[in-house]
Sequence to fold (360 residues):
Amino acid sequence: MELNTSGIIGQSTTLADVFRVLGKVAPTDSTVLVTGESGTGKELLVRALHANSHRAEKPFVPINCGAIPKELLESELFGHEKGAFTHAIRSRPGRFEMADGGTIFLDEIGEMELNLQVKILRVLQEKEIERVGGSGCKKVDVRIVAATNRDLEAEVKAGNFREDLYYRLNVIPLQLPPLRERGTDVLLLARHFLAHFCRKKERQVLQLARDTRRILLAYTWPGNVRELENFMERLSILVDGSSVEPADLPVKILDQVGDISLLPGLPDEEICTGPSSPSMSQYPDKAGLPAAEPGTFVWPDLSTLEMQGLNLKDFLEAVENRLIDEALVRADGVKNQAAELLGIKRTTLIEKLKKRGNQS
Fold:
């Protein structure tokens, strides 16, 4: 079955490893613990897990355990009965009841207090909840997926997290890599976000200059994908030209990467990548796994256009121009031979070169 990656963009081997585990665990009801630094996209991964499960048509209910005041979190999770506390003027179901039949996502579970951890453990063991102020238990059929940016093993040793709950949650661990370990995914994501925000602001899609790409690859992105997304939105507003140059980047980034002339060169698949020459081998296939080896073909999809910031006409022209250039290089500039390699007439090739402004 084709894996639905719910909009997660990337082709790095580290991300591909995550997708492989995702494909195996999604069809099961096993409890999953997603770990990773803040901003790596943990909720997107959990949504993909739900989308590929047999519960996909049932509710997906997220709750950020660190964003809700501790005194209200129990009621949010388990619901309450009328009169359970001062402002409980009516009975109200909690997130577990809302997720019945589906998936509940406990984000930042490392922030949860110990007394509530006991109740989560009970849900895992007994498949039942009790509303605040209630006198009986209610069965719930939910898959629990949790996420945290904390080291829960260290939290267990420090006495801040229950060891028995940790092991019940950590049946299948999924660790999302930080952006700095995802190679050229940085540029795939940067182009995707930049194109999105430029279109949203009804302006021409900005391109990334060569040295800008080298800088973006060298920067460590402490805020991960979230930082990159916010940064691309800022560029879509502030950059006046048609491309993002190193001078458009903030001092924070330039200071961290140091002397641009000393930065590593671009990977092979990025050297020719630009507004007129997208690299077909740089895109992930529909399963989210790495693209095919050079020399084989990967069908483009709409995400291909979005990542390059191109419409269909521009994309087809870019592919045609790239193939023509390769044929001319192979034929040492001899147009008869280049046309033969392309399977077209010499006159057709000359017409196409004229349209590009080349001499015949």
